[in-house]
Design a protein that fits this description.
The complex is a heterodimer of chains A (about 250) and B (about 80). Chain A has about 250 residues and is of the alpha/beta class. Chain A is about 40% helix and about 20% strand. Chain B has about 80 residues and is mainly α. Chain B has one domain: Non-ribosomal Peptide Synthetase Peptidyl Carrier Protein, Chain A (Orthogonal Bundle), CATH 1.10.1200. In chain B, helix 1 runs antiparallel to helix 2. Classes of the chains: A alpha/beta (about 250), B mainly alpha (about 80).
C-alpha cells in the first residue's frame, strides 16, 4: 500500500513505540488518528502532518466504536490500523512470599488480557467493519511480542500476545479474499520506559548480554517493521520478529 | 457450465443439480460465511468488477447475483475479456 494520504489509526500512539510509528507514518504522508488512554499526548506531533488525537480507553468497546466512526467519517474511510497499545506485566503463576504461597492475581490477569488482547479485538472488529463497508483494501498491523511463545514470569502477557498472533493469522485468512491484509510485528526488548520499569538494572544487563547484537532495539527500528508491514502488499498472516536475534 | 454457476458450485461444494436460481445460499446447508467472502473475490476477479457493500448484501442466491451483475451491465454467462 502506498502510504501517501492514507488514513491510519495508531493505538498507544502518544508514547514509546506507538509515537515512533506515528512519526514515521506522518513522514510517509499518512493522516494519523492517535488513540491513547492519556488525555493529552506528551509530545505534540501536529506540526509534522495531519494528526488527530482521540483520548480513549480501548478496553471500552463503545468508546472504541465512537472513535473509529469519528475518524472514518472525517476521512471517508480507514486504510490502516496499528494495534500497538498494551501494558507490560510481570508476575509468576505462583511464588513464595513471607506470608506463604503467593498466587497470580486474577484481577491482574484480567487487566492484562483486557488491555493486550480484548482491545485488539475491539479495534480490529470496528475497523474491519469499516473497511468492508467501504470496500477498502486496508491493512491491520498487530504489535505482538517475542514473549508470545512463552516467557517465565510473564504468563498473562505472553498468553495475551499469543492470542494476538492467533487473531493475526485468523483475520489474515478471513479478510484476505476481500483484499484486507493483517500482519504482526513482534518486537524484542526495546529501549522504552516500560522496559526499564519492568526489568531491574541487573536483569536488563543480563537480557542485553543474551541479545546477539548486544543492545536493545530502538523504537525507530520497530516503526520500520510496522511501515514494512503496511507497505508490502504480499505481507499477510505473518509475524515479523524484530528482536536482534534473541532466543527466548 | 457458465462462470457464475461454476463459481458457486466450486466454492460452496454444491452438488450439480442442487443449485437452483432461487436457492437461498444463506439458509442452505452449504452456507459458510468465509466461503461467501471467497465467492465475492472470485466473482470480482472473473467479471472484473468491484462490488459495493450494499450490493454484496443482496447476493443471497444465484438469481439475485445474476440480476445484480446484469444491472451493472455484466453478463454472468461469460468471463470478462
Amino acid at each position: 500500500m502506498d502510504l501517501e494520504g492514507k488514513a491510519i489509526l495508531v493505538t498507544g500512539g502518544a508514547s514509546g513505540i506507538g509515537l515512533a510509528v506515528v512519526r514515521r507514518l506522518l513522514s510517509e504522508g499518512c493522516k494519523i488518528g492517535v488513540v491513547d488512554i492519556v488525555q493529552t499526548p506528551d509530545q505534540d506531533v501536529s506540526g509534522t502532518g495531519e494528526v488527530d488525537f482521540y483520548s480513549c480507553d480501548i478496553t471500552d468497546i463503545e468508546r472504541v466504536q465512537e472513535v473509529v466512526n469519528c475518524f472514518s467519517e472525517k476521512h471517508g474511510r480507514v486504510h490502516g490500523l496499528v494495534n500497538n497499545a498494551g501494558i507490560l506485566h510481570s508476575e509468576p503463576l505462583v511464588g513464595f512470599s513471607i506470608d506463604g504461597i503467593r498466587k497470580h492475581e486474577v484481577e491482574a490477569w484480567s487487566r492484562v488480557i483486557d488491555c493486550n488482547l480484548n482491545s485488539v479485538f475491539y479495534m480490529g472488529v470496528s475497523v474491519a467493519e469499516k473497511m468492508l463497508k467501504t470496500r477498502t483494501k486496508g491493512v491491520i498491523i498487530n504489535i505482538s511480542s517475542i514473549c508470545a511463545s512463552g516467557n517465565p514470569g510473564q504468563g498473562a502477557y505472553s498468553a495475551a500476545k499469543a492470542g494476538v498472533n492467533a487473531l493475526t493469522r485468523s483475520w489474515a485468512r478471513e479478510l484476505g479474499p476481500m483484499g484486507i491484509r493483517v500482519g504482526g510485528v513482534a518486537p524484542g526488548f526495546t529501549d522504552i520506559p516500560s522496559t526499564s520499569r519492568a526489568l531491574s538494572v541487573q536483569m536488563l544487563k543480563e537480557t542485553v548480554s543474551r541479545v546477539p547484537l548486544r543492545r536493545l532495539a530502538n523504537v525507530e527500528e520497530i516503526a520500520d517493521g510496522v511501515c514494512f508491514g503496511l507497505k508490502n502488499d504480499f505481507f499477510n498472516g505473518r509475524i515479523l520478529e524484530i528482536d536482534g536475534g534473541l532466543p527466548l | 457450465m457458465e462462470p457464475l454457476t461454476k463459481i458457486l458450485i466450486d466454492i460452496f461444494k454444491i452438488p450439480v443439480g442442487e443449485l437452483t436460481e432461487a436457492l437461498d445460499l444463506r439458509e442452505s446447508e452449504f452456507w459458510d460465511s468465509l466461503k461467501f467472502m471467497e465467492m465475492i473475490a472470485s466473482i470480482e476477479e472473473a467479471f472484473e468488477v468491484e462490488l459495493e457493500a450494499d450490493e454484496i448484501v443482496t447476493m443471497t442466491s444465484c438469481g439475485n447475483i445474476r440480476s445484480m451483475l446484469s444491472s451493472k451491465g455484466i453478463s454472468p454467462e461469460t468471463y470478462a475479456s
